[in-house]
Design goal:
This protein folds into two domains: 274 residues, TIM Barrel (Alpha-Beta Barrel); 52 residues, no CATH class. Strands 1-12-11-10-9-8-7-2 form an eight-stranded parallel β-sheet, with helices on both faces. The chain has a four-stranded antiparallel β-sheet with strand order 3-4-5-6. It is 38% helix and 14% strand. The protein is built from ten helices and twelve strands.
Length: 346
C-alpha cells in the first residue's frame, strides 16, 4: 500500500493500517509531498540589502537586515540573526482603504504557475500530493494592511474587510482549481489564528467575517476532490468546531497540548477529522526528556489514531526552537514502531 493510499485512509477513517507519516525526508519516511506555486514571471521576491530600499521606506533607514517584496507587493524584513529565513511584514501594499478599488491582486491564479507540477505528480505518484496555498483570507489581508492595522480593521471597517476578503477568497478558489487540475490530493494553508490562551479576534467576529470564507474555500476544495489542511499556531479551540463545520479536513498543529489534547481528540473523533502534528514543540520536545517525549508520542497515538485520525510529522525548524534532532528522533521512532493498527507492517 502506497503512502498516498494510507493517508487517504487516515483522513477518511477507512481502516487505515497505520498512522500517516509526514516526517522530514532527511530523517524519516514521509507519505506526503509538498508543492508550491511558481513565482509569476518578472516578479522579484528575493531578499536584498535594506539599504537598496531605504530611500523608498522611512522604516528602513536604520534597519539592520535584508528585505524583499512578496507577490502581493508587501515589504518584508528579517534581521541578520534570523535563522528561519521568513522575516515579518514591515509595510502593507494596501496602506489606505481608499486605494482598495485600484489595488490588483497578483496573478497567482494563472494556471501557468502550476504547470510545472504535472511532472512532479508523475514522479511522486506514490505520495499524497499537497499544494500549498499562498495564504488564506486572514493571513493575506493582515499582511496587505499590516497586522496591527488589520486587527483594528475587523472592528472598525468590517464591510471593507469583507469586500477584500471576497476578492481574495475568489482568487484562492481558482488556485485550488488549478492545483486539482494538475493532480494534487489536498491543499494546505498556513494561517495562525491564536496566541497562547485565546483567539486573535473574538469568536463572534471570526464567525461573522471569516467563517463564510472558510466554508467557501473548503467547499471549493471538496468540489475539486481535494482535502483541506489548515495550519494554525496558538489557542483556537473556541472556533475549532466552527472550522470543522466549515469543512476543514486536517488540522496541522505544532502545539497539540496547548488546547487540551483530550478535548481536541474528542472533537476531531466526533467529526472524523485528522490531526497532523509533531510531539508538542512548546511543552515537550524542548525539554529533551527522552521518557517524556516517548510517552507523549504514545499518548498521541492512543488519543487520535484509531482506523485513522493521525499524521505524525516533524516541525520545520528545530534549530530555532533549540530542539536537537536526537530528541525529535525519539518521538519519530515511537510513531513508527507503535503507530500500527495491527501487528503486521504494510
Amino acid at each position: 500500500m502506497t503512502g498516498k493510499e494510507i493517508v487517504k485512509r487516515v483522513i477518511s477513517y477507512n481502516d487505515a493500517p497505520r498512522i500517516g507519516y509526514g516526517f522530514n525526508p532527511e530523517y524519516g519516511p514521509s507519505d506526503l509531498y509538498m508543492c508550491n506555486l511558481a513565482v509569476p514571471e518578472g516578479m522579484d521576491v528575493s531578499w536584498h540589502e535594506a539599504s537598496e530600499y531605504a530611500d523608498r521606506y522611512e522604516i528602513l533607514r536604520h534597519f539592520n537586515g535584508t528585505v524583499r517584496h512578496d507577490e502581493y507587493g508587501n515589504l518584508w524584513g528579517r534581521m541578520r540573526q534570523d535563522t528561519t529565513g521568513k522575516g515579518e511584514a514591515l509595510w502593507g501594499a494596501l496602506e489606505e482603504w481608499e486605494d482598495l478599488d485600484d489595488y490588483q491582486l497578483p496573478p497567482l491564479d494563472d494556471p501557468a504557475l502550476t504547470v510545472h507540477l504535472r511532472q512532479t505528480v508523475k514522479e511522486h505518484a506514490d505520495k499524497y500530493m499537497i499544494g500549498i496555498l499562498p495564504g488564506f483570507p486572514f493571513s493575506i489581508m493582515r499582511n496587505l494592511r499590516k497586522f496591527d492595522e488589520f486587527l483594528m480593521d475587523v472592528i472598525l471597517e468590517p464591510e471593507l474587510v469583507t469586500e477584500l476578503g471576497r476578492r481574495v477568497t475568489d482568487q484562492l478558489g481558482r488556485i485550488i482549481e488549478n492545483y486539482a487540475d494538475v493532480g494534487m490530493d489536498a491543499v494546505m494553508v498556513y494561517e495562525d489564528w491564536g496566541i497562547q490562551d485565546r483567539l486573535l479576534i473574538s469568536p463572534a467576529c471570526w464567525r461573522e467575517i471569516f467563517f463564510p470564507f472558510f466554508e467557501q474555500l473548503a467547499s471549493k476544495a471538496h468540489e475539486c476532490g481535494l482535502s483541506l489542511i489548515v495550519h494554525s499556531c496558538g489557542y483556537i479551540y473556541d472556533v475549532l468546531e466552527d472550522m470543522i463545520r466549515a469543512g476543514v479536513d486536517v488540522f496541522q498543529f505544532d502545539q497539540p497540548t496547548l488546547m487540551g489534547e483530550e478535548r481536541v481528540a474528542a472533537l476531531l473523533k466526533q467529526y472524523k477529522r485528522t490531526l497532523f502534528s509533531p510531539v508538542d514543540i512548546q511543552k515537550v520536545l524542548p525539554g529533551g526528556d527522552k521518557k517524556e517525549i516517548e510517552e507523549e508520542a504514545e499518548r498521541m497515538i492512543r488519543l487520535f489514531a484509531k482506523g485513522g485520525g493521525l499524521i505524525a510529522g516533524d516541525y520545520m525548524d528545530y534549530p530555532t526552537i533549540q530542539v536537537k534532532e536526537e530528541w525529535a528522533g525519539w518521538a519519530r521512532a515511537v510513531f513508527m514502531e507503535k503507530g500500527w493498527s495491527g501487528n503486521e507492517k504494510v
